[in-house]
Amino acid sequence: GAVVSQHPSRVICKSGTSVKIECRSLDFQATTMFWYRQFPKKSLMLMATSNEGSKATYEQGVEKDKFLINHASLTLSTLTVTSAHPEDSSFYICSAFGSAEQFFGPGTRLTVL
Amino acid sequence: GIQVEQSPPDLILQEGANSTLRCNFSDSVNNLQWFHQNPWGQLINLFYIPSGTKQNGRLSATTVATERYSLLYISSSQTTDSGVYFCAVADNQAGTALIFGKGTTLSVSS
């Protein structure tokens, strides 16, 4: 199957700082990638759809100025959590289509102190 | 949007037992996938199965698209099968994101 990587796997930061998370498709090109958020013992919630070369599409209730998404190439999408606060602490996961099915990155656990 | 319901929410088994997990969805789909989330959070692709039946070792899955449900069968369960199993679907537009059910938490004891 297709491989999606994420970096970093874990990050701890102070309140007010910005954090960038990278999502890469390693062995295929992805014109579209997706960003999800998962709270402890909860399901995955779609945050946004990242489109290569154009603006991301955000789900209702997701602040686009808080969660900046850039999809500058066919293999890389980035999610930047700006001015992070403790309520932004969560598990962030990206995904991409490898042919018909979606493959997910290993996730990034963000803790904001 | 599409609603996805999974049952049961929790399942406790003895090693060697069989189990069936169910996923109901509210509208037509062009993508249905089953995942196992391991303790580190990684989602492992189990099946891509918008319709029909597939088998992979001790796991098999069946989707009856006309009746809007899918089943995941686990036979001869092992402790390593423990974790959360998610069903996720996408609607009939190509390239759309997956919508996840709330998952079934499986605990297999030896």
Query: From the helix content, strand content and strand pairing of chain A, which structural class follows?
Result: mainly beta
Major sheet details of chain B: 6 strands, mixed
What form of chain B results from the Cα inertia axes?
globular
Report the β-strand fraction of chain A as a percent range. Answer: over 45%
Instruction: State the distance separating the first and last CA atoms of chain A.
Output: 37 Å
CA gyration radius of chain B, whole angstroms = 13 Å
What is this structure, in a nutshell?
The complex is a heterodimer of chains A (113) and B (110). Chain A is mainly β.
Observed structural traits:
heterodimer, A: 113 residues, mainly beta, seven-stranded mixed sheet, four-stranded antiparallel sheet, 11 strands, 56% strand, globular, B: 110 residues
Protein model, in words:
Chain A is built from no helices and eleven strands. Chain A is an all-beta fold. In chain A, the strands form two sheets. In chain A, strands 2, 4, 5, 6, 9, 10 and 11 form a seven-stranded mixed β-sheet that branches. Chain A has a four-stranded antiparallel β-sheet with strand order 1-3-8-7, with no helix packed on it. In chain A, a hairpin with a 2-residue loop joins β7 and β8. Chain A is globular and about 40 Å long. The model of chain A has no long low-confidence stretch (mean pLDDT 93). The mean pLDDT of chain B is 95. In chain B, β7 and β8 form a beta hairpin. By secondary structure, chain B is mostly beta strands. Helix content of chain B is 0%, strand content 56%. Chain B has no helices and eleven strands. Chains A and B meet through β4, β5, β9 and β10 of A and β4, β5 and β10 of B.
